[in-house]
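DM from R.C. (forwarded with permission)

"hey, sorry to bug you on a friday — could you get me a structure for this? deadline for the figure draft is monday and I only need the backbone to look sensible"
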Amino acid sequence: MKEINEHTAAILNEYRALKPAFEQMAEKLPEKLKQFFEEAGVIVAAIEHRVKTEQSLAEKLELKGDKYAGITDITDIVGLRIITFYIDDVDKVASMVERLFDIDWENSVDKRKMHEIDRFGYQSLHYICRIPESSYRDASHPEVNKIRFEVQMRTVLQHAWANMNHDTGYKSGVEIPQRYLRSLSRLAGLLELVDDEFSRIRSELADYRRKVQNLVASGNLSEVPLDGDAFRSYLAIGPFDNLNRRIASINQAEIQQVPLTDYLSVFKGMGFKTLGDIDGLIDKYGEAAYQIACFQLGLTDIDIISSSIGPQNLCTAYILKNGGGSLGLKLMLDAINGPGEGNEAMAKFLVEQAGELPFMNQ
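My reply, with the result:
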């Protein structure tokens, strides 16, 4: 380290005296933020923190030492970085930081608004904050409520750009040729576009899910394409419950709930395109599914059945009635249970026994 002047030495002495408080802040602040985000249901990619090292502080003071009267004038000794997945979550996180901490608006900066219309580059929202005593206080370190600290908020892609630019750009100490600066600017613009597109897609998907939920709730199932989101919304209304309760009544059995999402691939494999097709399956093949269940359970004392029995018997009836045979049943069982040697034997058994059931002769 180079020889330092008295002013710098005095600030470094203040730094050493306050370092326990800085370290405590760096430990407690992320905990407070994580708890706050969890309670609000906000998901972030990461929360990073650091305390500026003495060497880094000395280098800063060597360049800008006259700017600071004392250690409390330096606002980035303790730094936090909140990294979000989506660009529109930055403002959401910022509003929560505003609720948790006191913001020094005069020294805070939104670098997202600092670029000209034809320029791209580093984007991040920087708040200079204090911890209010109502949020956290420690009698052994009362100074933690007076020390200002920095909170940076940016997306994963903005974070990636900042790291790449740090390694290749402004802090390298070497003047960058114009052609490389142009390439870096193009890359920054591309990452900005990707950030915007991710947020747009998420917003449109949220709108689509709300639309699907409304259509399912209103019963307009023929208008809802059969996909993962739609199928989950459909399962939430319990479309197979009536059939399962009827089957359970054969032995006065208890119904054990199990996930039914694997049936999406089965219904798609059967050529279904909308939720209305599944509703039609229940109406047309519900009696056949019940007949299969009577054959399965009638001579047993089974008193616990799975909630998958209804949809499985519906699919079994549909495949048998439409000529899918043992191969079609095996493919269904493979999709539901995973491939296994027993599926082929079970498929053949179902084909043999189904010939005796009334629905096969109607």
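R.C.: lifesaver. Residues 116-120 have pLDDT under 50 and may be disordered.
me: no worries. The first helix runs from residue 6 to 40.
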